[in-house]
Specification:
Residues 2-61 form the HTH iclR-type domain. By secondary structure, this protein is of the alpha+beta class. The protein contains ten helices and seven strands. The strands form two sheets. The chain has a five-stranded antiparallel sheet with strand order 4-3-7-6-5, sandwiched between helices. Strands 1-2 form a two-stranded antiparallel sheet. Helix 7 (144-153) packs antiparallel against helix 8. The two termini are 40 Å apart.
Length: 253
């Protein structure tokens, strides 16, 4: 039975490459055509493959429906939380997880710093979109036309002397973030708070969330915080792997 299941599942990656006829499927599996036909018929009955008019087989609509349902039911916060806790235990600083929804970037999880100086950020609260590191990662991943249109509609409050002053400067910053794959906020929102962030990506490579480590200058300098970037990126990669199903859960340390 396990061999039959294994063979049937082996057909799906083949058809993902494009339509194939019975002979091609049998050759790939190393079985007789009658065996391949039985497997294809079973997959067809479940909607996982479809037989075209030219007698070739392709992936069925039910497979795409199942994949979409699986993605929609994934809870990025639930998956990410243990990783955020582990990162917080390793560095001691505040850790955030944020997502882009309806033209806002919102915090959806937070693990508090072990130090007495705390941040005012709250779960469910929008971030300062023109300066926050997590916001830069989310916006940098948007298609160029959408990114430019969104950026040009924003206001640019000068929270500090290091805040992003205008759309042109923000677009330049987002291009840099998109190229390097990580982002910072070094005193752009609060003069005394620095932040470094990395993206969480889905199976298609798109950014589904962003996570960050933040700390005040009285605890660590900006340069000291930046030394945590490799750890932050490994944590984000571990969350990405688990979220997309590419890798098993692993300690990023």
């Amino acid at each position: 039975m396990s061999q039959t299941v294994d063979r049937a599942l082996s057909i799906l990656p083949l058809l993902a490459e494009g339509p194939a006829d019975l002979g091609q499927v049998a050759d790939r599996l190393g079985v007789h055509k009658s065996t391949a036909l039985r497997l294809l018929r079973t997959l067809h009955e479940h909607g996982l493959v479809y037989r075209q008019s030219d007698q070739r087989y392709r992936l069925g609509a039910r497979l795409f429906s199942l994949a979409q349902e699986a993605v929609e039911n994934l809870d990025i916060r639930e998956i990410a939380h243990p990783h955020l806790v582990r990162l917080n235990e390793q560095c001691g600083h505040t850790v955030h997880l944020a997502v882009y929804e309806e033209n806002e970037v919102l915090y959806i999880d937070k693990v508090e710093s072990r130090y007495p100086v705390r941040m005012y950020s709250r779960i469910g609260k929008p971030v300062a979109i023109t300066v926050a590191a997590v916001a830069k990662l989310c916006l940098a991943d948007l298609p160029e036309a959408e990114r430019r249109a969104r950026v040009e509609k924003l206001d640019y409050p000068m929270y500090t002397s290091r805040s992003t002053p205008n759309a042109a400067a923000f677009l330049k910053e987002l291009a840099k973030v998109r190229e390097q794959g990580w982002a910072t906020d070094l005193g752009g929102h609060e003069e005394s708070i620095n932040c470094v962030a990395a993206p969480v990506r889905g199976a298609d490579g798109r950014v589904v969330a962003a996570m960050s480590v933040s700390a005040p200058n009285v605890v660590v300098t900006a340069d000291e915080l930046l030394t945590l970037l490799p750890l932050v990126r490994r944590t984000a990669d571990a969350i990405s792997g688990e979220y997309s199903g590419r890798t098993p859960t692993a300690d990023p340390a």
